[in-house]
Structures are given as C-alpha cells and as structure tokens.
Backbone:
C-alpha cells in the first residue's frame, strides 16, 4: 500500500533522513521505533507531504505522492495523528472532531462518522461541549485519534501516542489503536519511542537511528535481538 524508497530529507544544512526505505501493506500495523531525533516524525511528515524530500520517492498504491500537498494526500486516504496531538484547546471536543472531516466526502458524511466516533469513544461524547484544552492528557490523545477517524482514512499515521501519558493510559490508547485495525480495517503506521508498546501490537517494525533504518522484523525477531533487548526494551 505504502512504499517509501530511499528518502533523503534535509532541514537547511542538517540532513535528517539518509535513504529511508520501508513498506506498509494493506491491513498491517507497522511500527517505527527509535530514540529522540532519529527521524521518526520526519518520516511520517514526509509521507504526509508536510516535509518534502530532496531525494527518494513515496508511493501510495503504486502512485507517486511525494511532492503532493498534505490536503491532496489526505484525499487519497492517509491521515496523521501528530506528535503532541495538535488539538485546539479553545475549541470544544466536537469542534475539534469536525476539523478532521477535512475533505468533501468526509464533510458530507460527518454526522454519520461523528456517531460512529462517539460510539467508539463514549467519554468524548459526554464531553463534547467541553473545551478540548481541559481534557486530561489521555482524553486529548483519544480526541486526536478520533479526529483522525473523522477524515475516514484507510491508513493512519500515528506519531508518539504515548508521549506524557501514564503507563495505564498508554495501554488503553494502544488497545484502541489495535482495535482500529482489527475491527475497522484501518492500516496503521505508528512511530513511538515506547518500543514495548509498539512491539506488543504491531505485525512488523522498523528501527530507525540517526536517520537510517538499521533493522526490520516481526516483534518476535526484534525481541530476540540482543541489542534491541538492551537498548530499546531494557531487558
Ligand atoms: N523543522 C526542523 N528544522 C530543523 N531540524 C529539524 C526539524 N525537524 C526535525 N529536525 C531535526 O531532524 C532530526 C530528526 O527529528 P525527528 O523529529 O524526525 O525525530 P524523532 O525520531 O521524531 O524524535 P522524537 O522521538 O524526539 O520525536 C533531529 O535531529 C531534529 O533536530
Ligand atoms: Mg518525533
């Protein structure tokens, strides 16, 4: 479904990605793990068209999408749940959700999708008139994911969903993400420093360090690797 080929990304004079290649197949949950500054966010943002690569290609169902603008990429079925959640604190929960219904088809079907999203996240329904900035961290993360669903994507890119959350809430968020794939067939590409959580739910994962993919495998394969165990899992 999604193919990244030899992505080279620069921020001014700093090179952030050095030939990143990876694939996400339809229906998979694919993880991207790596330390601070490794290039996880850059990889997701380049996929969405937020960052433009200087080299390499992004292919979605065989079609080249690098160079496209984010709103065009969204129309093709991709949506990002950004690092830091990107919610608008002074808008209500429902107003934030409606912002996710960003293209024509999603906007036309917004009432139906809103009902679906509220059924999935009853807490958001209870709080739909509340200002989003007054939600707890976990609720804000759920809101960010729920807003992503409002775009009716076939694939969601989720960036660092465990950021700043207590372990129990992180588990809940990850359970929700897994159910999006299991019950609603949404393909998931998820980046997180929290290797434990990612490896618990993904089918395959890539390890990125200093802008390069250094390893790839199933959770079982990666968990068996001595270095992964020491550096990422603390075992
Ligand atoms: N807008 C920017 N301008 C300049 N440098 C940037 C910019 N965004 C990212 N970088 C640099 O690119 C590199 C990769 O950053 P990126 O945010 O992709 O890492 P990350 O793996 O998502 O890290 P984290 O786990 O902290 O979120 C870092 O060295 C970072 O400082
Ligand atoms: Mg990041």
Residues:
């Amino acid at each position: 479904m999604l193919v990244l080929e030899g992505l080279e990304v620069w921020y001014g004079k700093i090179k952030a990605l050095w030939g990143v290649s990876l694939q996400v197949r339809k229906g998979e949950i694919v993880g991207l793990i790596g330390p601070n500054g490794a290039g996880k966010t850059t990889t997701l943002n380049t996929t969405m068209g937020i960052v433009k690569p200087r080299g390499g290609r992004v292919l979605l169902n065989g079609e080249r999408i690098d160079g496209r603008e984010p709103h065009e990429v969204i129309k093709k079925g991709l949506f990002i749940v950004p690092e830091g959640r990107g919610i608008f604190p002074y808008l209500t929960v429902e107003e934030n959700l409606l912002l996710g219904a960003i293209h024509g088809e999603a906007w036309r079907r917004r009432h139906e999708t809103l009902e679906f999203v509220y059924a999935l996240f009853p807490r958001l329904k209870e709080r739909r008139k509340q200002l989003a900035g007054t939600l707890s961290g976990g609720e804000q993360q759920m809101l960010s994911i729920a807003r992503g669903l409002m775009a009716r994507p076939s694939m969601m890119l989720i960036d660092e969903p465990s950021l700043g959350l207590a372990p129990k809430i992180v588990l809940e968020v990850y359970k929700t993400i897994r159910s999006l794939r299991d019950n609603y067939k949404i393909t998931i590409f998820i980046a997180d420093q929290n290797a434990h959580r990612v490896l618990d739910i993904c089918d395959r994962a890539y390890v990125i360090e200093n802008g390069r993919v250094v390893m790839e495998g199933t959770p079982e394969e990666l968990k068996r690797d001595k270095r992964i165990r020491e550096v990422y899992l603390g075992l």
Notes: The mean pLDDT is 96.
